[in-house]
């Protein structure tokens, strides 16, 4: 250092205390190093001496901060696990929600907090049905079994049990039905009023408005010991059921956004209230069609529908459309007039219900056509008999082999409404002039 002729350490961000060997250099040689002291510079103060310990202090502070953060993280994780266990425990018991009877908009959720008029408890349903005993079964559909449940307080509801299954598509049945029914309201569609789900029981329960008079199938095809009940299903009631069905299907196809394909229209899914008004139910197989719907995906991967009601094109396309719903509706209309099931053995091996009707409608003479009308309806008034044949004509349009030749559900509904109104006009004319 004694042989060094010039030294310039200015502005190097140096720190610490200079030794005595630097004392003969001018202060300019160390300018700009604010953390230096000693030598030609000012003597080191107490604070400067302390600042020399800043590096070790930082290490200690960093260690403390890290340990504190780890402790907080562990505490937060413990709280999360605790609340998660409590949540899963609540879910594993029962989740019951009741819907409001009012709906301000079709697209708003059906089930909303704070709208409940009452709660449907899992235990109450189990108690009322002896743990869903077979004695309380009133029907079954493509997505589950239906029970009649009389609750405390006198209320009666219909409860559909849907089991959880391993198959991916069937697992979606409960969610799909709740979402579909939750956003639609129509006088001819069965109303879903709530639901319960239990992981412990491995099933879901859909709670419906109860229909006092069962299904159209019950009235048309019940056993002989109940023939008195069957005879009360007169022509006007059957025509009204057909019109109600068409109005419900029209709503699904034309007034819902996105439109809804029912996929399983049949007489056992047409439920009747105390006024014998038709309500279309069992939406477990319903499929909402989006505008960007990909016909090569889900609709091709699973089978839906009931034998005898399925449109012929579904056998090779596996694609449900509005026109396949219209076909199924046409089969039900024939069922209402004829009183026969779609798979009736009297049709023969090489003939189905549609061809059977076509054959008799083509025949000349009243006797052949009369075979198309349910004997339980006879005798019909002339205006009623004429309306019955007109209803069969509409049904044949709905069941055309080519889907494009079938009317839309709206067109079919308009024809049925016109037929119903004209039938009433003809009936009034006959009452005013019985000899006309």
UniProtKB/TrEMBL annotation:
Keywords: ATP-binding, Cell membrane, Glycoprotein, Kinase, Leucine-rich repeat, Membrane, Nucleotide-binding, Phosphoprotein, Receptor, Repeat, Serine/threonine-protein kinase, Signal, Transferase, Transmembrane, Transmembrane helix. GO terms for cellular component: plasma membrane. Residues 132-421 form the Protein kinase domain. The keyword Electron transport does not apply. InterPro entries: Kinase-like_dom_sf (IPR011009), LRR_dom_sf (IPR032675), Prot_kinase_dom (IPR000719), Protein_kinase_ATP_BS (IPR017441), Ser/Thr_kinase_AS (IPR008271), Ser_Thr_Kinases_DiverseReg (IPR051420). The chain crosses the membrane at residues 58-81. It is an enzyme of class 2 (transferase). ATP binds at residue 161. This is non-specific serine/threonine protein kinase. It comes from Salix purpurea. The lineage of its organism: Eukaryota, Viridiplantae, Streptophyta, Embryophyta, Tracheophyta.
């Amino acid at each position: 250092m004694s042989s060094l002729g010039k030294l310039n350490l200015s502005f190097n961000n140096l720190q610490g205390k200079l030794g005595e060997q630097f004392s003969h250099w001018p202060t300019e040689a160390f300018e700009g190093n604010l953390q230096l002291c000693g030598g030609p510079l000012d003597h080191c103060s107490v604070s400067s001496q302390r600042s020399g310990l800043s590096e070790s202090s930082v290490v200690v502070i960093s260690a403390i901060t890290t340990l504190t953060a780890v402790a907080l993280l562990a505490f937060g994780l413990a709280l999360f696990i605790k609340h998660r266990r409590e949540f899963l425990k609540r879910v594993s018991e029962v989740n019951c929600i009741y819907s409001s009877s009012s709906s301000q908009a079709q697209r708003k959720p059906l089930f909303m907090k704070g709208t409940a008029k009452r709660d449907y408890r899992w235990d109450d349903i189990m108690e009322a049905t002896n743990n869903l005993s077979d004695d309380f079964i009133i029907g079954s559909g493509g997505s589950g079994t239906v029970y009649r449940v009389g609750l405390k307080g006198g209320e009666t509801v219909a409860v559909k049990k849907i089991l959880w299954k391993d198959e991916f598509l069937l697992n979606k049945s409960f969610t799909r039905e709740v979402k579909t029914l939750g956003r639609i309201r129509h006088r001819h569609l069965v109303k879903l009023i709530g639901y319960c789900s239990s992981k412990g029981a491995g099933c879901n329960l859909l709670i419906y408005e109860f229909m006092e008079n069962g299904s159209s199938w019950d009235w048309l095809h019940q056993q002989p010991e109940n023939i008195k009940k069957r005879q009360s299903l007169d022509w006007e009631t059957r025509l009204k059921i057909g019109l109600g069905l068409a109005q419900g299907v029209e709503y699904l196809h034309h007034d819902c956004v996105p439109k809804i394909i029912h996929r399983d229209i049949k007489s056992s899914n047409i439920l009747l209230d105390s006024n014998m008004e038709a309500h279309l139910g069992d939406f477990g197989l319903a499929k909402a069609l989006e505008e960007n719907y990909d016909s090569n995906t889900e609709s091709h991967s699973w089978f839906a529908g009931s034998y005898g009601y399925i449109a012929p094109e579904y056998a090779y396309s596996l694609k449900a459309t509005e026109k396949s719903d219209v076909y199924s509706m046409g089969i039900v209309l024939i069922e209402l007039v004829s009183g026969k099931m779609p798979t009736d053995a009297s049709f023969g091996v090489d003939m189905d219900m549609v061809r059977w009707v076509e054959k008799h409608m083509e025949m000349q003479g009243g006797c052949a056509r009369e075979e198309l009308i349910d004997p339980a309806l006879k005798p019909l008034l002339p205006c009623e008999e004429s309306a019955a044949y007109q209803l069969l004509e509409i049904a044949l349009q709905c069941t055309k082999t080519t889907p494009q030749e079938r009317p839309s559900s709206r067109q079919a509904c308009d024809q049925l409404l016109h037929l119903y109104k004209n039938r009433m006009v003809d009936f009034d004319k006959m009452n005013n002039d019985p000899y006309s």
